Every structure is written in structure tokens, then in C-alpha cells.
From TrEMBL:
GO terms for cellular component: cytoplasm; nucleus. GO terms for biological process: proteasome assembly. This is Uncharacterized protein. Belongs to the POMP/UMP1 family. It holds the Pfam family UMP1. InterPro entries: Ump1. It comes from Aquatica leii. The keyword ATP-binding does not apply. Keywords: Chaperone.
């Protein structure tokens, strides 16, 4: 029995090596172009890193599919339009947005994470005031 839910298992990103780097005279790559230690940017040291990186996106997708299955297409469409409207709220360039509406719609206002503790004005490198602009 299928409920039409998206899979939770993380799929590894495909590694594309479309470009070819010319080898040197001895068949080795030049250190000037490749560097001393080359690693793939997509490789992770732990399998949960990719899952945690996409946690909020996966949770939002799962919630939208469950809403569509239980209440119909109108519920995810309404929430999507509310999120889009919350993202388009404009501010003056020197004022930072707190994204309270977006956080309350996505449920992040109920969570406390590292971005809440370390993203305050006192920890920022540059603090912009109204008089500076």
C-alpha cells in the first residue's frame, strides 16, 4: 500500500567530470592547476551530513505531500502562497529582516538552533547603523 510519500533516504549527488585537465609531460597533473591536496567537494565524512544539511527542505516536502494526500491540493497551495508572500516583505537596505512571519509559517519559531544563538548583532563582523548609510 503506497501513500505517495517522497523517499527519505539520501541519494548521493552524481559526480560529473566533464572537463579534462591536461596532464604534464610525465602523465601527472600540474600542481599549479590542481593544488597539493585535491578532494571532491561533494564528499562527506559522515552519511548524516547530507541528511542534516537538507533537513528543513525534506521536512517541508514531507509535510506538503501529507497535506496534499489528506486535505487535497488547496492546503499545500495556500501554505506555499503564504510563504511566498512572507519572503517578499520589503525592508529598507540598512534594516535587517527578522523573518518572523516566515519562521512562524515553517515552524522554526519553536526551535532553538545554533543560528539563533550565534547570529545575533553582537557576533557579526560588521554592524551597520542608520547613520552609516
Amino acid at each position: 500500500m503506497s501513500f505517495g510519500l517522497p523517499p527519505i533516504k539520501v541519494k548521493p549527488a552524481p559526480i560529473c567530470n566533464d572537463f579534462a585537465i591536461d596532464n604534464g609531460s610525465y602523465g601527472l597533473q600540474s600542481l599549479m592547476t590542481t593544488g597539493l591536496a585535491t578532494t571532491h567537494a561533494g564528499d562527506s565524512s559522515h552519511p548524516l551530513i547530507l541528511s542534516e544539511r537538507n533537513y528543513h527542505k525534506n521536512r517541508h516536502t514531507m509535510n506538503m505531500v501529507m497535506l496534499r494526500n489528506t486535505q487535497g491540493l488547496h492546503a499545500p497551495l495556500k501554505i506555499t502562497m503564504e510563504l511566498k508572500a512572507a519572503k517578499q516583505i520589503g525592508r529598507l537596505p540598512f534594516l535587517s529582516s527578522s523573518n518572523v512571519m516566515h519562521d512562524s509559517l515553517t515552524g522554526r519559531d519553536l526551535e532553538i538552533g545554533p543560528e539563533d544563538v550565534f547570529n545575533t548583532a553582537e557576533f557579526r563582523e560588521i554592524e551597520i547603523t542608520v547613520e552609516d548609510t
